[in-house]
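Internal tracking record. Fields below are filled automatically when a chain is submitted to the structure queue. Please do not edit lines marked as system-generated. If the sequence contains nonstandard residues, flag them in the REMARKS field before resubmitting.
Queue: standard
Priority: normal
Entity type: single polypeptide chain
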Amino acid sequence: MKAYYVEAYDNNDLSKMIYGDLPTPEIADDQVLVKVAAGSFNPCERQVGAGEFEHAFATPIPFVFGVDCAGIVEKVGANVDNVKVGDRVIAYLGFAMGGGSGEYVATKGDWVAPAPKSMSLTDCGCIPLASLTAWEALFTHGKLEEGQIVVVNGASGGVGNSIVQLAKWKGATVIGIDHGSVKDNVMSIGADYFVDYTCQKLGDVYDKEVDLIINFSNAPESQIEEQMAQLKKGGTVVNGNAAMAQKMLRKIGGNQERGVTMSDSDSANVNYVIFSVDYDTPSLTKISKVIDEGGLKPLITDRIAVKDLKKAHETYLQGKNNGKILVIVDDSLK
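SYSTEM-GENERATED OUTPUT FOLLOWS
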């Protein structure tokens, strides 16, 4: 099969990325083989390919890029009973495992979910990681309920866009924070308020307390700290910028890997979560239903053929990627 891969960690030397032939994966009894229609580009796969997580988790070498996909079930392991050959599925494959840029990928049967019926299978490739990240940030960690107030930093991004839409689907009031040039876009997907971080602070636009602050942007620490001054007691910060989140956690005295409850006089009972996405097929299944019901329209800002995947890595390293790039492997699959 054709796939885009590296034979060893490349330290961001993109000349070592290879588009070539690899053996079609064999499956274990608890796995399925998926014929891939499309996936998406996610910055984490560039970091894995570079070797930045070499000491954090084991990665198969060659490492095949692509951490999510949509496709058709080609084979089913002996112990898999939740899907059958021919099913249209979506899957989050995991940072460490990859595989989504190959013509075929083997993954656990428990990790695939039904693809939305209302979208082409190719377009479904943009769903798994971005939408699952948004869902877990809002509902698994943020515990968002109808009527609450949520602040979304990076509201126009691949994850932020889904967060805004899912929060509105839940019945929350949404405050989107991003560059002023994307205001119309953020308001059009459901934000109730917009803060242009280049010239405004949260309090300039919305001066009441908020229940949840989410960050999947490169916002400075000061921006998040200013917002936390408006966070209700018992409120939550979910920070997907791991480097900044760890630094802030140390500053406020936390010693837990995933979060801390602060107890000083200014921020009593505030939950601070350093975000990392987990496999969660039930939530991915719910996301498909929300899409079919019209509650979420996944973002696609660009489409490229898998043979051109290196271009997405190049623009990411240049700091130019913004949004969601669909990586098409086989658009004949329906």
